[in-house]
Amino acid sequence: MHTGDQLSLRAEHLAVRTLGPTTVPSPLDGGLLRRQDTVHYVAETDRVLLDDTLDMAVRRGGATRDLPAFEPGGPRARLFFDPARTGAGIVTCGGLCPGLNNVVHGLVLELFGHYGARSVTGFRHGYRGLTKAGAKDAVGLTPASVDGINGQGGTVLGTSRGGQDPAEMLDTLLDRGIDILFVVGGDGSLRGAQAIADEAARRGAPIAVIGVPKTIDNDLPWIDATFGFQTAFGRAAESIRAAHTEARSTPDGVGLIKLMGRHSGFIACYASLASEGVDVVLVPEIPVILDGERGLLAHVLRLLDRQGHAVVVVAEGAGQELFPPSEERDASGNARLADIGGLLRDRITDHASGHGRSISLRYVDPGYAIRSVPANAFDSVYCARLAQAAVHAAMAGRTATVVGRWHGRFVHLPISLVTGARNQVDPHGDLWLSVLEATGQPVWP
After folding, report:
1. Are 282 and 318 in contact (CB under 8 A)?
2. Between the CA of residue 68 and those of 10, 148, 226, what are the distances in Å?
3. Rg (CA), the chain
4. pTM, entire model
5. How far apart are the C-alpha atoms of 6 and 231, rounded to whole Å?
6. Alpha helices in 35-142 (DSSP H)
7. Partners of 315 in beta bridges
8. pLDDT digits (tens, 9 = 90+) for 254-270
9. Are 208 and 394 in contact (CB under 8 A)?
10. Euclidean distance between CA atoms 403 and 107, whole angstroms
C-alpha cells in the first residue's frame, strides 16, 4: 500500500452492507457477566479513522466528519438475527495457514457460548463442501467437538482451492437452513464469499456472509496483519538461523532460503530482520539483478571474500522477470510461479565455479513445514478475537464484510475493498529501509 492508494479512498468506499434494521435485543445483556453495564457495546455512530497522521487528514481537506472511516467491530446492543433461531456455517478455504483451527474454535465458542445459536455446521474441504455433492460430508460443530483443536496445525474442516458456482452454494445454504456463513480464506476465497453474498441479495435471501481474512503472506490491504503471519515469520526465522549456522561452519558456505511470498515480501523481510547474519533479501516488489558488478552473483563472491560465507533469503515470487512469460494457472486461478530458488542455486554455483571457486551451497525451502504448524501464542489470541468480532458483525446483520484490525482497532471492511488491491512492501518505505540497513545489500532500482 502506498500513500497515493490511501488518499484515493473516500467514506463511501468503506461502507459495509447490512441486511436490514436491528430489532432483536442482544442476549449478551443477561448472559455474559449477568450485568448489563459489563458489556461494552459499540455505538453505531462510532468510527475508526482511516488516516492515522495529521498530514494525511490535512491533505484531504474538508470537515472532520467527512474523513473516511471504518465501522468498528464489536458487540451491538441490538441484532438483526434472533440467535436462538440462527443457524451458522463455517468453511475454510485455500492454502494452509497457522491459526485456522483457532478461528474455527473461536467461532463455535462465541456462537454457542455467548449468543446461544441454534446450530453450527462445518462444511468440509473448502467451497467443495458447499456443492450438492460435497454438502453430504458436512459436520455439526459444538464446543465439545472443537475442544483441543487449538493446538493442532492445518484445519479440521479440510480445505481446497478452486471456485464453485455461487448459485449452487447458496442453494446448499438455503437447504441447510444456514443464516450466516463464515468464510475463512484469502483474496480468492473472499471473492467467492462476495459472489455468494451477491447471489443471496439477488434472490432476496437474508443470509449474512462474513470473511475472516487468511493469508500467510500478509498481502491483504487495509488490515494491520493477517492471522498466522507472526507465526510464519517466526518459524521462517528458525530456518534462516539453521542455514546461517550451516553456511558459516563451512569454507565458502552459502545458505539460500526460499520463503513464502507470491506477490509480497513481508515474510522474507520480517524473518530476515528477526535473524542474524542475512546478507541479501530478495522480494517480488523489487527486480532481481543477477549480473554485473552490482548484481547478486558478484555480491555473493565479495561476501565470501570478506567473511567466508553468505546467506541469501528469497521470497517465492521474487525474480519472476528472469523467466520467460507463462500463462499457466493453478486451481485458484493464480499464475504458476517459476522456481526462483532453483535458478539462484544453479546460477550462484555456476558463477562461483566460473571464477575458480568451489562453494558449499545449502538450499532450504521450509514453506510447507511453516504453513502446517500450530499458531503461536500471539496468533492464537488474535484468531480468538477475530472470531468474536466476526460473530458480532454477523449477528448484527452485516454481510459481504470482512473483519480485521486497523491501527489496533477491530473494524468492518467491505470485501470488495480488501480484494480490490494488494498489500506490498513499499520499496521506498521504512520496512525496506530497515532491511537495507540490516543487510548492507546493493540498492537495486
Report:
1. yes
2. 5, 41, 22
3. 24
4. 0.92
5. 28
6. 54-60, 100-113
7. 259
8. 999 999 999 999 999 99
9. yes
10. 13
Q: Residue 329 carries which DSSP code?
A: B
- Per DSSP, helices labelled H in 261-397 are 266-273, 296-307, 340-354, 367-371, 377-395
Quick one: which of 349, 360, 343 has its CA closest to 308? 360
Cβ–Cβ under 8 Å, residues 398 and 72: no
Cell 498489500 maps to which residue? 423
DSSP assignment of 246-279 equals HHHTSTTEEEEEEE--SS--HHHHHHHHTSS---
Measured between alpha carbons, how far is 204 from 199 in angstroms, rounded to an integer? 9
pLDDT-wise least confident of 49-63, 115-129, 405-419 = 49-63
CA distance 283 to 268: 7
Q: Based on the number of CB atoms within 10 Å of its own CB, is 325 exposed (0-12), middle (13-18) or buried (19 or more)?
A: exposed
Q: Indicate which residues carry an active-site annotation.
A: 217
C-beta of residue 217 within 8 angstroms of C-beta of residue 236: no
Burial class (CB in 10 A: 0-12, 13-18, 19+), 118: middle
Q: Are 246 and 253 in contact (CB under 8 A)?
A: yes
